[in-house]
Amino acid sequence: MAVELERTEQVRAKIQIKNPLLRNALSEFFGTFLLLFIGIGIVMQFILSNEKLNTWININLGWGLAIAFCVYLCSKTSGGHFNPAVSIAFLTLGKLPLKDFLVYCVVQTIGAALGSAAAFGLYYDQFVKYAGAFRTIIGTKATAGCFCSYPALHVSNTTAFFDQFAGTALLVLFVCVVIDKRNGLPAASHPLLFGLVVMMIGTAYGMNLGYPINPARDLGPRLFSYFIYGSGVFSYHSYYFWIPVIAPLFGAIVGAWSYTFFVGAHIPEQRETTYVLVDEANQPLKLATDA
């Protein structure tokens, strides 16, 4: 074990990236890749098994766990955004530079596209068994929904827009709750709490679109699926595709600032109380603080 650890440290010393933006961009790419590789796999298992191996609650639980563990993965580098909506919220809050935001959006989308491609490769035989040679967006053997969101025809684009706006606003609002140091939530609990927030949103508002609430999560796989299903992935439902890309950005900003205006700015500062510990002879031992 000691020899393996030494080798690990040797490799680390040779390949460690010093540039913060490059380091964080690599983390965002890899974290989003893994998130989509796991998450898309969950959806594929649901659809391609005729909804026998997974249920709707399994999808919510699986995505929540995927979020939690992928954020744990990148918690000490980029922090694990994996979502341009989260990144734009941090940009407006002054927690992320504009240059970093733009780079994050690109690498997150590429990571999502490649993650979905990897999941497709792993489940390719199941696609063939389920739908044969046909790859369709709608119909009894439609499989395009394995990759990204396609609302039912009775769901209007107006409803879809506000669905994504509201869902992402909830996500980012509670992200702000979790990371606000004044709330005193242990840092080690943050990734798990983020996963629970995603589960909550899915169980409440997953009916319309399947709660993508993440431009990279929807656009990346849609770009990859274009090579399988054709231009219909963009023209479907009066060019619905732009809604899960744009609406979450606005929802994220509103969610972040609604927390600030309604709650965050009004949390009282904690006052530090100093105690003097004494021994049996009433002599001071040390100072202790209680925040």
Automatic annotation (TrEMBL):
Pfam families per the UniProt record, alphabetical: MIP (PF00230)
Topological relation to the membrane, as annotated: Multi-pass membrane protein
Gene3D superfamilies referenced in this protein's UniProt entry, alphabetically: Glycerol uptake facilitator protein
Protein name, as recorded: Aquaporin-9
InterPro entries per record: Aquaporin-like (IPR023271), MIP (IPR000425), MIP/Aquaporin (IPR050363), MIP_CS (IPR022357)
Family (UniProt): Belongs to the MIP/aquaporin (TC 1.A.8) family.
Signal peptide: none
NCBIfam families assigned to the protein according to its UniProt record, in alphabetical order: MIP (TIGR00861)
Natural source organism: Caenorhabditis tropicalis
Keyword Transmembrane helix part of the UniProt annotation: yes
Entries under SUPFAM superfamilies matching the protein: Aquaporin-like
Single Gene Ontology MF annotation: water channel activity
GO cellular component annotations of the record: basolateral plasma membrane
Keywords per UniProt: Membrane, Transmembrane, Transmembrane helix, Transport
Entry's transmembrane regions: 21-47, 53-74, 101-124, 160-179, 191-213, 239-262
Known function: Aquaglyceroporin that may modulate the water content and osmolytes during anhydrobiosis.
Record's subcellular location: Membrane
